[in-house]
What we know:
- There is one protein chain.
- By secondary structure, the chain is an alpha+beta fold.
- It is built from 3 helices and 12 strands.
- The protein has helices at 69-78, 93-114, 120-123, and strands at 3-14, 28-39, 42-45, 50-55, 60-61, 89-91, 136-143, 153-165, 168-173, 197-205, 208-213, 218-225.
- A hairpin with a 2-residue loop joins strand 8 (153-165) and strand 9 (168-173).
- The chain is rod-shaped, with a radius of gyration of 41 Å.
- The two termini are 50 Å apart.
- The mean pLDDT is 89.
Amino acid sequence: MFFYTKRIEEKVFSVGQLENPINPHADMVLGFYRNYAWTAFFRIYNKNAAPLYWDLSTNKTIPKRKWTGEMHALVKQKEHEVPAAPYRFKLTIVGYIMTLFFIGFFAYLTYDSLRPKASYADQVTPIQETPKAGDMYFGRFETMKPGERVASKVGFGWFKVIENNQGQLKVAMNRNMSSHHKPSQELNSTDYEEQTIDANISSQESFQLNLISSDKLTEMYFTEKK
């Protein structure tokens, strides 16, 4: 960000009545100076102008530690005659635009965090309709070995109904089933196995469809319809 500063001379007073504490034979003046800063976004003036005594023979400032009591008293007297700063802080046009941008941005973040979130029911297509050929569902499957009740294989992904013959379904699994859960959008939903599984509906609710294979060894749980 471009940044520019300068010191502005606000008022200068002749102080011939005072003795120069460094060079008694040289004249000096009292000046009041205010700092001004400018950037692309804002402009700033210091509220108070700083007093400085100048040695006119050397054109150098006199350190404040060398000031006499009379010099301090004159500063107190003259500082009331120094013009006030035209303003303390002012935005530029670019600054106004950036301020409005940030106000709008944070207002949006606040609104987005406070607005009611869509419920699960609003985001998921109900699947209470009878499955038909071509329907695709997202969910998981569990496969068990004969005589066992604990799943030997579990997978997540997309399934496709190939046929529904009066409740007797043929279902194809996707060729890229995941061994662990991932969002449906991240998994393949176009490539399916040629081999199908014969299955029947074991239960069906508004947002879940459960199937069991004819040999009772594979169970499928669908929670999303494409």
